[in-house]
């Protein structure tokens, strides 16, 4: 059971890094990014390819964050000036392109077979202490990311991205170009996603393109909506709620043994969907309240 | 400051909504633009401030032609507009709205946010001082820490004026500043505009409230169906037969 809880905590931390990035983009800036998983994928593959080719894990993690960020650059250049709904579609398309490249460029990514044998972060230790070490490093990254977000929220930069979220035209009328701010937000969020992907790759040890479907993006969306959009505490709470529903439904068969094994995957999806619906009906501002509640 | 709007035009297909409109402002004046609904006044504002691309015409601000400058560049050049329906940053307080409008903030990028917090904090203090002045000037003290979305219509207009002031604009373009504002506040707002004008800020104002506007401006331009039909001193313009015809409608005397 301990091992199970540690595993959930690690996955939660990896999701939290993703969610903090998306909350910065959507919750604070109003940027509708439906392609978050694309940068997660880029980070995972970057770190996996480098580390399986002998690059030390510390460097491959750093590289994953950087490449995740750089991957966002072309998307930003092409589409950051689009209206928000068009950007949403462009970003979704981008993440699908990333997945298709991972699927078809076998020389680089080993195609659909994926990359196996990705080294662990602390290869010296084994078993339980390995997991604890992994949890420690994920926690450190999460804490750093939360501190960074807090600083952003309280800064003039944070003020301006919230202004963009509230009214982009008014920001322009004051002589400030929203595009530059959105680009920075896109890059930082993608850097976090890249790092998150790398941690995921090293934790699971095996990646393949089918792990990076748009559903991951939408899970993160559900987390920040249920927790409270535009709130850092909401992002944390949302990831916890998401994990409770994702993992909690695993134990559903203990109380309802008549559910067939094959139906479980669908039931778990249904459980998250139900949770999202209940939240939007009974607590649309999310658990911690969104940015409208001051 | 001087402003020359030269032959601004805008057509949607065959429909010309702004037809070679020229307006000249010499030495930081207060100028009014009036006309019936659909005359093209707000479109003219959007053309001048770069929020819409026109089909010909130019704007010359302080002797510099603005050419194809974007909305952002035009605002940076010192030409700031407000909107007919106020566009406040609804979830931010009045104070934050004003802070956000201050130009040249070093803290508005992620690098300085993380690596030069001391210099950012210093500048924030400076800006906060100016914001307090603006709040006092516009008498927004009571609502300084209220989210702007909860303000009354009149207060939102004041806030937009305040934001324009914070940018250090040379020319402020107000789109219906008196609409939905109570008479007492209209008088007060007019007084503020006069005070600011005395400090050298030019105003271009679209308005339907002719009474308040004609007392405020030194020159009125009248638009109808995209064209300028009259201009001159308020009293003369308002007694012009064509203007009465267009504005008030046939038969009014």
From TrEMBL, chain A:
Keyword Cell membrane included in the entry's annotation: yes
Cellular localization per UniProt: Cell membrane
Keyword Glycoprotein attributed: no
Membrane-topology descriptor: Multi-pass membrane protein
InterPro entries according to UniProt: ABC_transp_permease (IPR001851), LivM-like (IPR043428)
Domain of life: Bacteria
CDD domains hit by this protein: TM_PBP1_LivM_like
Keyword terms of this UniProt record: Cell membrane, Membrane, Transmembrane, Transmembrane helix
Principal subcellular localisation of the protein: membrane
Positions of transmembrane segments: 6-24, 31-51, 57-78, 85-102, 131-149, 185-206, 218-246, 258-282
Name of the protein described by the UniProt record: Branched-chain amino acid ABC transporter permease
Source species of the chain: Mycoplana rhizolycopersici
Taxonomy of the source species: Bacteria, Pseudomonadati, Pseudomonadota, Alphaproteobacteria, Hyphomicrobiales
Automatic annotation (TrEMBL), chain B:
Keyword Transport in annotation: yes
GO molecular-function terms, A-Z: ATP binding
Domain ABC transporter: 3-250
Gene3D superfamilies in alphabetical order: P-loop containing nucleotide triphosphate hydrolases
InterPro entries with a match to the protein in the record: ABC_AA/LPS_Transport, ABC_transporter-like_ATP-bd, ABC_transporter-like_CS, BCA_ABC_TP_C, P-loop_NTPase
Protein keywords: ATP-binding, Nucleotide-binding, Transport
Pfam families reported in the protein's UniProt record: ABC_tran (PF00005), BCA_ABC_TP_C (PF12399)
PANTHER family listed in its UniProt record: CONSERVED COMPONENT OF ABC TRANSPORTER FOR NATURAL AMINO ACIDS, CONSERVED COMPONENT OF ABC TRANSPORTER FOR NATURAL AMINO ACIDS-RELATED
Family under the similarity heading: Belongs to the ABC transporter superfamily.
Name under which the protein is recorded: ABC transporter ATP-binding protein
Organismal lineage: Bacteria, Pseudomonadati, Pseudomonadota, Alphaproteobacteria, Hyphomicrobiales
């Amino acid at each position: 059971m301990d091992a199970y809880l540690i595993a959930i905590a690690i996955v939660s931390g990896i999701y939290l890094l993703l969610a903090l990035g998306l909350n910065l983009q959507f919750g604070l800036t109003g940027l509708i990014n439906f392609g978050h998983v694309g940068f997660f994928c880029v980070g995972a593959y970057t770190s996996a390819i480098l580390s399986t080719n002998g690059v030390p894990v510390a460097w491959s993690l750093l590289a994953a964050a950087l490449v995740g960020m750089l991957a966002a650059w072309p998307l930003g250049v092409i589409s950051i000036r689009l209206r928000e709904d068009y950007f949403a579609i462009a970003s979704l398309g981008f993440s699908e392109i990333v997945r298709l490249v991972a699927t078809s460029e076998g020389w680089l990514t080993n195609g659909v077979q994926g990359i196996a044998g990705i080294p662990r972060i602390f290869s010296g230790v084994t078993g339980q202490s390995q997991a604890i070490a992994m949890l420690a490093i994920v926690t450190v990254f999460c804490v750093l990311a939360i501190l960074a977000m807090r600083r952003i929220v309280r800064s003039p930069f944070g003020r301006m991205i919230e202004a963009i979220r509230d009214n982009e035209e008014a920001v322009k009328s004051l002589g400030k170009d929203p595009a530059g701010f959105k680009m920075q937000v896109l890059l930082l969020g993608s850097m976090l996603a890249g790092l998150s992907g790398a941690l995921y790759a090293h934790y699971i040890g095996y990646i393949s393109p089918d792990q990076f479907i748009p559903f991951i993006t939408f899970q993160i969306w559900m987390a920040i909506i249920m927790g409270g959009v535009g709130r850092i505490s909401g992002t944390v709470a949302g990831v916890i709620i998401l994990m409770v529903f994702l993992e909690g439904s695993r134990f559903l068969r203990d109380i309802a043994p008549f559910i067939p094994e094959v139906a479980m995957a669908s039931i778990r999806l249904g459980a998250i969907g139900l949770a999202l619906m209940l939240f939007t009906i009974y607590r649309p501002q999310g658990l911690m309240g969104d940015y409208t509640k001051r | 400051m001087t402003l020359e709007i030269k032959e601004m035009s805008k057509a949607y297909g065959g429909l010309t909504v702004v037809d070679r409109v020229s307006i000249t402002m010499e030495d930081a004046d207060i100028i009014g633009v009036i006309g019936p609904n659909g005359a093209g006044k707000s479109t003219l504002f959007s053309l001048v401030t770069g929020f819409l691309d026109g089909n010909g015409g130019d704007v010359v601000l302080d002797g510099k032609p603005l050419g194809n400058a974007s909305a952002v560049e035009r605002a940076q050049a010192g030409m700031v507009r407000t909107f007919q329906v106020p566009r406040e940053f609804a979830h931010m307080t009045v104070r934050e709205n004003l802070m956000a409008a201050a130009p040249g903030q070093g803290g508005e990028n992620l690098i300085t946010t993380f690596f030069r917090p001391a210099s950012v904090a210093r500048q924030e203090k400076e800006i906060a001082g100016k914001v307090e002045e603006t709040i006092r000037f516009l008498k927004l003290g009571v609502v300084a820490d209220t989210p702007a979305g909860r303000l009354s219509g009149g207060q939102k207009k004041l806030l937009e004026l305040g934001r324009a002031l914070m940018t250090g604009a040379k020319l402020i373009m107000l789109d219906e500043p008196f609409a939905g504002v109570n008479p007492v506040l209209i008088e007060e707002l007019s007084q503020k505009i006069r005070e600011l004008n005395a400090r050298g800020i030019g105003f271009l104002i679209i308005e339907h409230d002719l009474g308040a506007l004609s007392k405020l401006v030194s020159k009125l331009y009248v638009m109808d169906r995209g064209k300028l039909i009259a201009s001159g001193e308020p009293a003369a313009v308002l007694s012009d037969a064509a203007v009465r015809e267009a504005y008030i409608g046939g038969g009014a005397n």
